[in-house]
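Invent a record, attention on tokens:
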Amino acid sequence: MRILLLIGVILLIDFYVFQAVRFSFRSSSETLRGWVYGIYWSITAFSVIILLATLFSDWQTWNKAFRTYSFSFIFIATFSKLFAIVFLLADDLIRLIRWLFAKVSSSFPSNEQLEMGKENRITRHDFLVKTGLVVAAIPFISLLWGMVKGAYDYHLRKIKVALPNLPKAFEGFRIVQISDIHSGSFMSGEPLQEAVRIINEQKADLVLFTGDLVNNRHDEAIPYKHILEQIKSPNGVFSTLGNHDYGDYVQWDSKEAKQKNLNDLIQFHRLLGWNILMDEHHHIEKDGERLTLIGVQNWSSHLRFPKYGSMEKATTNLEYSNVNILLSHDPSHWRAEILKKYPKVDLMLAGHTHGFQFGVEIKSLKWSPVQYIYKEWAGLYKEGQQYLYVNRGLGFLGYPGRVGILPEITVLELTSKA
């Protein structure tokens, strides 16, 4: 029933927007109009056929790439037309007002109005209609380009973090942070292999992963084990869990099945050679000096995300070092708890937001819809002597692409120099 309702909505939108298409190309040649109309309704036909097919077969068994890109294309096409509708509604409102005014005026006609009345027609505003189509084309083209190019256009960001208490032995210590791999969203291993190549090419002293290895189930990561286990550093790879790693967004047969999935995922981290920190801490030593890593399970100040982590447990019997680094998936943890209760945490590393996979980052201009949900959503933040770095994520979720906010591999260089 919901699918049929969705098809009905799509058809209503398409018929309405088609009025703008037909109006805009009314003076074009018959050949051009034929091509434009054909392409327009082919997209509609494709959308309807795919949605109808879900009623007669299990879409989850379809080829992963076909399924993902087909549904995404339907969403992009429909979503983009909503922008055109805004302008068409404005145009129709203006036409309605003009029509009402004409009706009222016709009650008191002048001689001139009587002569011209039959010739007057309340037509569409060419500017509004064409502007609506142009505006609709922007998200349509951008989102398609984001799937083709942006999804795997890995961006290497190099950041210096000034920590005045940094031990001399760790001056210039380099950390690669990766986050939100979402292995279940990858169509093949090639893009992930390229990411691992870039990671290892940095020859970092330490690699840290801040959660969301999978979308829902631990077995999503199994096909990529031979790739992920290639990630190496002299001081190892340390990891923690994100909100998607717990399987909270899946209907499990039992609590035991859900727990087994989590246990299997934790074991998978270890099979990769990663040191997973489950509300634990670990010291990195060098030349008789040390820094401390603290890793907590997912902890969010947002009600829709879980609070599985415990800083209290992670710091039990902890003898803090001069520099202490926290791995916590959700950046809201920093302002909600870390800044208030844990002043000895010098740097927190997070992910989770993906930068919404959509936005603008051009020099000083930085915008994404996610900023209306998360105060800290991408990049380096500082309050007092404490830092937060929010990684934009390596993979993607839902929409199989990125526009403006590219997938990220971060190199953090620690220094005592301001």
About this structure: Residues 357 and 405 are 5 Å apart (CA to CA).
